[in-house]
Protein: carbamoyl-phosphate synthase (ammonia)
Organism: Sphingobacterium tenebrionis
Amino acid sequence: MPRNTSINSVLIIGSGPIVIGQACEFDYSGSQAALSLKEEGISVSIINSNPATIMTDNVVADHVYLLPLTVESIEQILQERQIDAVLPTMGGQTALNLCIEASNRGIWDKYNVKVIGVDVAAIEKTENREEFRQLMIDIGVGVATSKIANSFLEGKEAAQIIGFPLVIRPSYTLAGTGGGFVHKKEDFDAALNRGLHASPTHEVLVEQAVLGWKEFELELLRDTNDNVIIICTIENFDPMGIHTGDSITVAPGMTLSDKCYQDMRNQAIKMMRSIGNFAGGCNVQFSVNPENEEIIAIEINPRVSRSSALASKATGYPIAKIAAKLAIGYNLDELQNQITKTTSAYFEPTLDYVIVKVPRFNFDKFKGANKELGLQMKAVGEVMSIGRTFIEALQKAAQSLETGRAGLGADGRQSRNLEEIMHSLEHPSADRLFHIKDAFELGVPLESIRKATLIDKWFLVQIQELVQLEGELRRYQLSNIPRDFFMTLKQKGYSDYQIAWLLGNTTEDEVYARRKELGINRVYKMVDTCAAEFPAHTPYYYSTFEDENESVVSDRKKIIVLGSGPNRIGQGIEFDYSCVHGLLAAKECGYEAIMVNCNPETVSTDFNMADKLYFEPVFWEHVREIIELEKPEGVIVQLGGQTALKMAERLEALGVKIIGTSFANMDLAEDRGSFSDLLKELDIPYPKYGVATSAEEAIKVANEVGYPVLVRPSYVLGGQGMSIVINDEDLEKAVVNLLKNLPGNHILIDHFLDRAEEAESDSICDGEDVHIIGMMEHIEPAGIHSGDSSAVLPPFSLSENVQQKMEEYSIKLAKALNVLGLLNIQFAIKDENVYVIEANPRASRTVPFIAKAYDVPYINIATKVMLGENKLKDFTIVRKLEGYAIKEPVFSFSKFPEVDKQLGPEMKSTGEAIRFIKDLNDPHFRELYSKKSMFLNAQ
C-alpha cells in the first residue's frame, strides 16, 4: 500500500535533555525519522528541549520548537500549525509518556491528530506490568511468576507467595528506575517502597528472579500488512540481573541453538502482533534458561530504543528511517534497501562480522556511589566495535572506551589483588570484564569464574585463550616473532601497544614498524547487511587483518573528522552535533568528508552522514592507519572534544596537518601554567596561581597565592579532578589523589575568587578578524563548573564595562593564540574586575546552545573558516533572539541516591535543556535569579 496521502504534516516528539537511560540514541532516531518523512514531501515539526542535538536543527526539520516537553507545549504547536499526525516512537519513554498524557486529556482528538507508529492502547499494554503479564499468558508466551502490587501490603503478600530472590519492576519508568533485585527478606520493605514511589502510577510488579539466565534482545519491524521482520538479535554477555544498558552485548547471538533461536523469533513476532494495530519498530527482551533453553518474555517496547540505534549501526539497516515510512502507510516490500539499492527493505540482515557493545561508566563523578550493577541503568554512554571475531571486536571495544586501556589487559593496568578480583566477579561493576581476564592470568580455573559470574562458558573460553597467546608471545623478541603468529595476535585484536608491553624493552612505534616490514596491514571491510550476497553501495567500513581491502580510496581532496567517542559527563552529544556540522560544511566546500568514531548512539555514525564512515576506535593506532590509507588534506580535531584533541600532538609529530588552530597553540591553552604566563604578557587579569608536580610544591604555592585555592590538573575535560580547598591538609590529600590518577600531570593551584560571578564567551577567529558569537552570564557563582551552571544569553546583569572587557580579552586571546576556528573563554567577575579563568580553542558545549538560540549555523561557519575556504567577512550573520535564552543543566542523581549532590568545580550534569524568556520578569527566571543571590551570599 502506498503512503497515506492524508498525512501531509507530522509532529515528532523528542526525548528532552540527556539523562542516564535516555541519551543521544534518540537524537539519532528522531533525526533519521525526520529526514525520512521529508523525503516524502511531508512537513516535519519537532518538539524537543535539548539544544545540543542535531534533531533540533533546521537541517533536519521544517519547524523546530525548543519548548519544554509538556502537554501545554504540544497544544501551543497544534494551535500554531496544522498537524495531521504525531510520531511519538522516536523520543524514548519521555515521548511515549507525553503522548499518553495528551491522549488522556483529549488533545489529539480535539485537534484531529492521528497517532502513528504505535497504538496508544499498545503502550498501555506494554507499560502496565499486569496487563503485559496477562497478555503473554493469553498468547502462550512464557513469563516469570509474578504479582502486581499497588500498595505496600499487596507487595508484601506477593513476596510471600513468590519467595526470594525476586525482582521489583515499577510501571512506566525509564532505564529500570526504582527497580532492583531483593535477595533477602530483610531488604524487601525498603526496596518495595522505592519501587512504588518511582512509578508514576504507584504500581510495581513483584516477580520471580531468574538470576543467571541468559538475556537476549530482538529488534523488529512491522508494516500495515502485518509483515514482521527481525532486524537483529543481540545477546547479552552478562547474564540476567544487569540492566541491558549496563551489559556488554554481542550481535549476532553467539550461544543460541538454532531451535531456541527459531522459537524466540516466533514468540517475538507473536508478541508484536498482539499489542495493537500499528506499523513501526519494536524491541523485545527475552530470558533463556541455560540448562534447558526455556524462554520467558521480559518486556516489549513498541518504539525505537537504545538497542535500535545499536542494531541499526550493527547491521547497516536504518531502523528509524524505515519505521517512519511504515508509520505513514508504506509496506516493507515497497521500500528500497538503502544498502544494496536493488532489493527491498523486506529482508533480514545477515552479518559476516561480530558486533560488541561495551557500556561507559562515570563513577568517578559520583563519589561514594554504589558501583554494583543491577536493574537500574548507571552507564552514561557506550561504544560499539566491529571485528571478524568476537575477541577481535571485544579488544577493539576496550580500546574505544576512553579509560586509558589499550585492549583487554596486557597494558600495565591489570589488577593482581585476587580478593578484589573475585569480589568483582561476584558483584559486577564497570571493571568486571577486565577482572575476568585478570583472574585467568592469576590462574583461577574457568569453572570458578563461570560460577562467580554466571557468564556463558563460550565467552569465557574466548578470553582465556588470550592468556595462552600472551604466554606464547613472551617466548619471543620483536625481531623473531613468526609472521603467522604476529598475524594471529592482530586478528585477536591486540594493539601494537599491548604487544610492546608484553614483550618489554620495546615501543609501540617499533612494533608498528616491524609488522609493516612483515606486510601485516589493516584492511577495511564494508558493512553491507547481506554478507556479500548482493552488491552493496555503502561507505561504511571497519578494520580487520586479512588480505582484501574493500575501502577504495578516491582521488578527491579529503578531510578526516575525528569524533568524540563514547558519551560521558563533560563530553556529550554537543560534540557529535559539532562533528556532524563539520562534515556537512566540508562537503559543501567540495571535500570528501570522512568520519572516524565508535559511538553507536550518534548521528555522526549514521552511514549516510559522511562521504565515508570508519566505525573504528578513536585510538591512535587505528586513526594512524586510516590516515595512511586515505592521505587527507588534514584532520579536524577541534570538534570532537578531548578525545580528538589528545591526538593532536601525535598527528603533528607524524606530519599530518591539523585543520584549524595548531597543536602548539592548543597546547599553550591546555597547559595551565603556560597559559597563565600568556595572560600576564597580555596584561589580562587572572587569579594568582602557581604550578606544582608534588604535594610539597603545592603547599608552598598555596601559601604564596593564599587560601582558598582551586586545585586542577592540566589536559582534562569536565572539571575532572578539580576541587576547592581551604588548608594544607586538604590540599595534600587532593594533590596526592590527583597524581595517583594522573601521574606526571602538572597541577595548577589558583587563588579562588570567592563571591565572584562567572561568565563565558564563544568566538570564531579566521586569523585576522574575531566574531563574538555569544556571551553568557552564569546563574551560579564561580566555583561551580560551567557545565553544571545555568547560563543566560545574552548577559542580564553584567555592566557594559564588564561586557566590553570580556570582548576585549576574547579578541586579544584569539589573536595571541593564533586561533583558527572556535574559542571558548571562561571569566570570573568580582567588583567590576574581569579575570580570565581558562580558554579552550575548540568547540565547546555552549556553541550548539548559542547556535540554536540565535538561529545561526556557527559550526558550519567555523569549519569553513578552518578549512580556509572563507573569511568571517564573507558571512552575513543575522541573530533572531528576542529576549533571553537560558541553558539549564539536568542531572541523573536519582540513579545514585547515596552520593553527595553538592555542586562544585567538577562537572556532574548529564545533559541540558534550553528555555526562552521574553524578559527578566519571567517567573522561571526570577526563581533562578533568587538562587544566584542565595549562592553568592552563602559564599
Remarks:
- The chain is about 35% helix and 20% strand.
